[in-house]
Amino acid sequence: MANQNIIDLTNARKKTQILTGTLSLPLRVGERAWITYGNQTITTSLVRYIWEVAPDSILFETCNTIYRLNYLSAAKTEVMCA
C-alpha cells in the first residue's frame, strides 16, 4: 500500500482540543489559527497540517495541539485553506 498520512487521535502524543466556534482568518499551514468560540478568541501555535476539511468542521494540527473545530452553523461559515 502507498505511503499514507493517517492520524490516530487516541494515540497522539499531542494534546487534543475539540471546540465549537469559527475561524476568524483563513487557515494556512505555517501561520497561526485564530479561533473564536464563546466570548473569546484564541490564537494557536503555527499550523503544521490540515488533516480534514468538512462542511461542518475542520481537523488540523499545530506544533503543540491537534484541533477539531466544529462550526456553529455550516450554512454561515466558509472555510478557506491556502
What's the helix and strand layout?
Elements: E1 15-23, E2 32-37, E3 40-54, E4 57-62, E5 65-71
Parallel strand pairs: 1-5
Antiparallel strand pairs: 1-2, 2-3, 3-4, 4-5
Write a structural description.
The structure is a single chain. The protein is built from no helices and five strands. It is globular. It has a five-stranded mixed barrel with strand order 1-2-3-4-5. By secondary structure, the protein is mainly beta.
CA radius of gyration is 13 Å
Low-confidence stretches: none
Please bin the fraction of helical residues. under 10%
In sequence order, what are the helices and strands, one letter per element?
Answer: EEEEE
Question: How many strands, which pairing sense, and closed or not: the largest β-sheet?
Answer: 5 strands, mixed, barrel
What gross morphology would you assign?
Answer: globular
Tally of strands: 5
What is the average of the pLDDT values? 83
Structural class category: mainly beta
Strand arrangement, largest sheet?
A: 1-2-3-4-5
Summarize this entry quickly.
By secondary structure, the chain is an all-beta fold. 0% of the residues lie in helices and 52% in strands. The chain has a five-stranded mixed β-barrel.
Looking at this protein, list some descriptive labels.
single chain; 82 residues; mainly beta; 5 strands; globular
